[in-house]
Amino acid sequence: MKTASNQPNQQNQKTPAFLMKGLAGRKTLKGRVTINGAKNAALKAMAAAVLFDKKVRLENVPHTADIDTMSAILEKLGAKITPVRNHVMEIDTTGMTAANSTDIDPVLAGGMRASVVLTGPLLARFGKVSFPAPGGCVIGARPIDLFLEGYKKMGAKVTLENGLYQITAPNGLSGMDNFFHIISVGGTETLMMAATLAKGKTILSNCAKEPEIINVAEWLISCGAKIKGAGTSTIEITGSGRNIGDAGKLLHADQAKPFVTIPDRIEAGSFLLLGALCAKDLVIEKCEPKHMTAVLHLLGDAGVIMEVAADTITLKGNAKPNSQSKSFNISTKEYPGFPTDLQAPAVVFLTQVTGESSILETIFEGRFKYVEDLVQLGANITVTDPREIKVKGPTAFAKPIGDLYAHDIRAGFAIVMAALVANGHFKIHNAHLIDRGYESLEERLTSLGADMRRS
């Protein structure tokens, strides 16, 4: 898979775009939207397949561009992949060897941050791995020192040669105590996976608590891994004691049921925010509301009427003007706080409701690139700091014809929301970035009544 630049490029006609007609503030969308599996859990389960002695089966896998990229990386490493079909895939890593399966492709890895989580399983199984500085969305600094320092504590040697990190642990990894000075989802997941094959006990402190971590950990436990505390700030892993070159002490695929990906809470939150602005009647099904507490509380406080059941969220008779909803302030936090990945869609919501809001981005400092597009549409937004903006609403979005840009996955969805709310016709460039996190978005929104197609 070729990866294109994340930066908007008016001269680049090869990347896909969305053509859309706005609803001019009317709430006309209606229907049902089914939430797919969480890509951020499925990607980590794909990486964890390297730890297994046999083929593994993954279910409820979203068919997004990131899943395709991870598949391509694994295939280059020697894995056999059954492509996603009906949201099911199989991964067989039994043909991977230390001789030809430890160099992560720099071009493919450059387009996706999650590629770095492969380093833990590869290092634990083969005793070596090489990889470039990871790519993905351009949303600010995402240092990998958390990974590298963890590997060093586990006995690995780390060098940087010609832009590639070379990590070696010829005698295998050893258990260690590690405190994350910054809470890191990727760091927590990657060191947890690496520790499952290490010698001795590993204790990870100040861990991330995301549901996706629990999802992967519970699957690994069912396959023989000894992991305690996933979903809390301290995770304890007792490794299998693998020596590099041994045929045994991998995880056993035949001991467990297939990995079943939990519902994507970010996708559900994205559609909920979109529905609050643009839908008269919308049922969001096969979601997990208990993973969305922060979002549900804020929207409820704003005046959005929702019916929340075990696995559905319903907006029924959502006909009142958006101006009758109230503003709220946001400070993004690690789970269970308000997710940074819903910050941009929430800002679009706040431009249409009454009041002034403060949005503080505490996770990534580069997540306000989309603000310029919203201002061009008419939004009243002031950037007070690289990490803080003020939004005053409501403001009607209007532009007869306009070009808009997706700057990253979630900001891209926010721009789609803005175009739907607006009065006008729009071309949203860099749709390939949105494809990384949302499966068949144009088809799903069209089924709800949106005027949207891919160009």
Question: What does the model show?
Answer:
The protein is elongated and about 65 Å long. The chain has 2 domains: 18-36 and 263-454, Alpha-beta prism (UDP-n-acetylglucosamine1-carboxyvinyl-transferase, Chain), CATH 3.65.10; 39-260, Enolpyruvate transferase domain (UDP-n-acetylglucosamine1-carboxyvinyl-transferase, Chain, Alpha-beta prism). The protein is built from 14 helices and 23 strands. A 4-stranded mixed β-sheet has the order 21-22-1-23. Helix content is 29%, strand content 24%. By secondary structure, it is of the alpha+beta class.
The biggest beta sheet reads: 4 strands, mixed
| CATH architecture field of the largest domain | Alpha-beta prism
The CATH homologous superfamily name of the largest domain equals Enolpyruvate transferase domain
Strand order of the largest sheet: 21-22-1-23
What is the share of helical residues? 25-40%
List keywords for this structure.
alpha+beta; 4-stranded mixed beta sheet; 2 domains; UDP-n-acetylglucosamine1-carboxyvinyl-transferase, Chain; 29% helix; 455 residues; 14 helices; single chain
Write the layout of secondary structure elements.
Elements: E1 18-21, E2 29-34, H1 39-48, E3 56-59, H2 65-76, E4 80-85, E5 88-92, H3 106-109, H4 119-126, E6 128-132, H5 145-153, E7 157-161, E8 164-168, E9 177-179, H6 185-195, E10 201-205, H7 211-222, E11 226-228, E12 234-238, E13 259-260, H8 265-278, E14 279-285, H9 293-302, E15 307-308, E16 312-315, E17 330-331, H10 343-351, E18 355-360, H11 371-377, E19 380-385, E20 388-393, E21 398-405, H12 409-421, E22 423-429, H13 431-435, H14 441-447, E23 451-454
